[in-house]
Amino acid sequence: MAANDPLLAAPPKQHVPALRAWAPLASRLLGLGAQAGAAAAGGLHGAVVLRCERVGGLAELRSQAAVQPGVWCAGTGPSDPQPSDEDRALYTAGELACLLEGQRGVVLLQLHVGWDDHDAIPPYGPYKPLVLRLLREALARPDVVSFASLAPVPGAPGGSASAGLTMVLSADKEPFRSWSAHLAGFGCQAALEAQSPYYKLLVGRVLGYLPANIAHHIKLKHGSEPSREVVAAVDQALAKLSSKQPRLPWNASARGGGRKKAK
Question: What is the pTM of this model?
């Protein structure tokens, strides 16, 4: 990825707001790209590779996302095993692969974290394996749209650098499109957990997690599952945003084969 990369210099029309918001915040990622090029030309400057193990690739990830997407779509349940380091590393790429395969309608991709020292933060978004390759594919798809979700610097004037930037990627189809715009409207961030049962339930529903897994997560954090009032409020909010019901895979025809143009 270079500073004059077309991804940032001439983004697809439906992704202009998100990518132009990211461009001034992507300097570290662009710098890493330059360093990688220098390393390839001049060696690893004394570094020694002790062990290299292939744990998977893009083709395998896409195949699994198409036929067994649950690990990237269902959320975490009480009986689910702890993910391995490899699982964690590929999780964001798996979410994007599921979106491209029609198995998820909405994905949150953290593009910038500015509320802490960058070197102290675990790799996220574009710093994870395969994410940029899948992001490029998503941005070239006419049936995928995006929204820039900004967490502004507290007290800073409008238009200043953001403390957080998440790209909300969505199928260009209802209800996913309207739900995604709503998440961006209140500055939802992939790297920040919602603080109330209402927003935990709302975000979980939009992302397509299983209701039981959302309720389990809320109970762990707040001591009880979401109340009837909270569930009713979320149902009402989502219905107000769009009258359509989510259907997956969102890119399959009514007869179960091929793709059709998003509506």
Answer: 0.85
